[in-house]
Predict the structure.
Amino acid sequence: MASNQRENARKEKQLNKERKVRIIIWAALIIIVVVLAIMRVAEIDFSSVKSRISGAGLAVGANADVYPYELDSSSGVEMSFVNDKIVALTDSSCKVINPPDAKELYSFSCGYANPVMTSAGKFLFTIDQGGTRFRLDNTAENVYESATEERILCGDVSKNGNVIYATRSSNNKIKLIVMNNSLKKLVEFRVKDGYLLAVAIDASGKRFAYATVTSEKAKPVTTLHTYNIGDTKPKATFKYSESNVIDLQYTSSGELYYVGDESVHLIKSQKKDVEVFAHDKAHTVTFNYTNDGELIYVYSKYTDANENFVTYINSNGKVKTTIEVSQKPKYVSATNDICVLFTDKIVTYSMTKGTEKQRFKCDDSVSSASKLSSKIFVTRNQLIDVLDDED
């Protein structure tokens, strides 16, 4: 009898527990239904809520009410993305902006006559090109600001905060300097083989390169030197006849792009030249780089051609994607997709397949366009704006 009583008591206890669980479940369901009903009445955008919660898609939830975002500028704005934050450089200031709500996270006034910025990792390196001042910041604070006695020509920054810059004295002597983020000079020497136009430093801050231009038989010749920090002599030297250097850029894996006015090369391991486009086979229209420093290059086969080609050139020097377009692009960028700006529209393409994905209308006032998540961020005059509507 006692055993039956204990068994009945156990069953009654189990039933009571199950009743409580059912009550809790039904209560939770009722609350969810009420909340959903309230949100539906209030016309809350569920996809917007989801995008704001998802850390991988912050830009999807960009609040259209805060755009266009106006900046203090008399000559327009240059926009870039650093660690999924907008960096807006004007002729008077730099602002780091959170894309979803346009909240200013960090800013500084530089007062440079001709500010030019490069970035890597979290670091921003700003020079007064033609002036004597320069500064290193990250996306949250200033690291240092300094000045030279000679005029600054160009500069670049690595992910560890090492910087490279070149200066020109009053008697046209050119000096190249590499320093760490404590202003300690790691490299310093005079450049003697021409006028220096471009410098680059790799992500690790351990490799660098520079290019000079001279004239031979009334035609330009660019000489490219690659160095490893600690070496007294170049790792390699390359000469490109009838070529003007436009830019140098290291990939995240340490390979170096040489972009000329009519050619493209890739330097592997600081010493092996891979010819991507030979001289006069590609007339440079515009170009940009991916987050990994790989090249997105737009060219035509001859000057002022209507047919242009948008290419993705990987860090092995291989042309992986080619997209033929019938208009001359004004600007190109590449985050998750290739984004091409024309005078009257913006078109995005798959980076690997080259297929068209989106198309947006715009006018000629738009000066740059970049895709972040599903949004297109553009600059026009002194504004940063967001495009939502496709054609």
About this structure: Residues 1-11, 23-61 have pLDDT under 50 and may be disordered. The helical segments are 2-41, 46-53.
